[in-house]
Write a structure and sequence with these properties.
The protein is mostly helical and 185 residues long. It is built from ten helices and no strands.
């Protein structure tokens, strides 16, 4: 059954809602989640540079709604998550981060240092000559998140390069009971 053009247009103005209205729940939920996650991260962590993604996501969701509405029912695509989250979850997600410890760690450290500088160090320098320290407490949650991100990045980097013995499944030689350990030398 064809959905209303007017309602498709109106729901298409909200990222993900148009897809949901047309019966694409996975696609709609993932678009809406990504859109609002970026809004929350940009607001809560003072990461304003993420806001450039919002118009891109909005336009994609809007035109995707219009395309889904106008596509003939024989050619409609399957309802899938954005970024194929249904196949990434589980062991594949763990394996992805296991293989990319170093890159993930470096990215987390860079993000954490940026948050730390933007939210704490620069305000401290600006308020050094002023006794008003209330704005520093306003950024305390961001400061804690920055330290957690830096800590996770350092842990990922430390775990990224396994020792050669672990990499090759090396088993150290242990003499059996029949062999004389002094004869090895």
């Amino acid at each position: 059954m064809r959905k209303s053009r007017i309602l498709s247009f109106l729901f298409g103005l909200i990222p993900g809602a148009g897809q949901m209205y047309l019966g694409y729940m996975k696609r709609g939920v993932s678009l809406m989640s990504v859109f609002w996650l970026i809004v929350c991260l940009a607001g809560f962590l003072n990461l304003g540079f993420l806001l450039f993604l919002l118009p891109v996501i909005w336009f994609y969701a809007f035109f995707d709604t219009l395309n889904l509405r106008s596509t003939h029912y024989e050619f409609l695509p399957n309802d899938e998550f954005l970024f194929h989250m249904d196949t990434v979850l589980g062991n594949q997600l763990v394996e992805f981060f296991r293989r990319r410890h170093l890159l993930s760690g470096i990215l987390l450290i860079v993000l954490g240092v940026y948050i730390l500088l933007h939210s704490f160090v620069l305000p401290v320098l600006l308020y050094t000559f002023n006794l008003n320290i209330y704005p520093l407490f306003d950024n305390l949650p961001t400061l804690l998140v920055a330290f957690v991100i830096i800590f996770l990045g350092i842990r990922l980097i430390k775990n990224s390069v396994p020792p050669k013995a672990l990499e090759d499944d090396y088993q150290p030689y242990t003499p059996s009971e029949d062999e004389d350990p002094s004869a090895q030398a």
